[in-house]
Design goal:
The chain is of the alpha+beta class. 42% of the residues lie in helices and 15% in strands. The chain has a 5-stranded mixed β-sheet with strand order 4-3-1-2-5, with helices on one face. The longest helix is centred in the N-terminal third of the chain and has 19 residues, at 4-22. It comes from Pholiota conissans. Residues 173-183 have a biased composition (Polar residues).
């Protein structure tokens, strides 16, 4: 085993980078939001949505520790045509749906924040526009590429936009789809679970789901 002096600094650097990413401005606070439910392809498609889950969702989790987040990744073949979608449930029971199809992660983040973001987010947007700066790092370039992609002729000539996963499964009831959900529960509920199983669980040094910025 190498001396601690050779391994410990690397861990500090990685932790520092992680914290810098989680705390990078703007802070993605979602006041009044009860839960987020995302459905997307497990791999090979829906790349903007996948990058959102990888890059932006940990920042949202970090800024909103009591927010329920469910990520449903479903294996998808090229022949299956459905779009990635995010359901945003507000504390008053209202549910808004965001289409994530053919969008970059920055565009998805901006749409979510414009819908439910805090006054600080609105101030950030106003400040960036006045200064001629992108609202999120890389967003200006992503918007240009996104418009180019959306302007390209579609290989699938089916009229109308693609169905959501729920709509696709409803129209194809015999389709056997293996779902691989990832659920992030509220920390309060996790605390209750820990108290209920305190007498039966043993102490472990492995980080639990609640300590991870984003469960994979």
């Amino acid at each position: 085993m190498p001396p601690r002096s050779q391994t410990f600094p690397g861990g500090i650097v990685r932790l520092s980078k992680l914290l810098s990413h989680l705390n990078a401005p703007p802070k993605l606070v979602l006041p009044g939001v009860k839960s987020l439910r995302l459905s997307l392809s497990a791999k090979g498609d829906h790349f903007g949505a996948q990058h959102f889950v990888k890059d932006q969702l940990p920042r949202i989790r970090y800024a909103n520790p009591n927010l329920n987040i469910e990520v449903l990744k479903v294996p998808k073949t090229p022949e299956e045509k459905w779009r990635p979608e995010m359901e945003v449930e507000l504390e008053n029971g209202t549910v808004q749906k965001l289409d994530m199809d053919e969008k970059w992660s920055t565009s998805i983040t901006k749409e979510l924040m414009d819908l439910t973001g805090s006054p600080e987010w609105q101030k950030h947007v106003f400040s960036c526009k006045n200064a001629g700066l992108p609202i999120l790092p890389g967003a200006d370039v992503h918007e240009i590429e996104e418009r180019k992609l959306q302007a390209q002729p579609k290989k699938d000539t089916t009229a109308g936009k693609l169905p959501s996963l729920a709509e696709y499964l409803k129209a194809n009831p015999t389709k056997n789809v293996v779902k691989t959900p990832t659920v992030q529960r509220k920390e309060k509920q996790q605390d209750k679970d820990k108290k209920g199983s305190k007498d039966t669980q043993t102490t472990s040094s492995t980080p639990s789901e609640s300590t991870s910025p984003l469960a994979s």
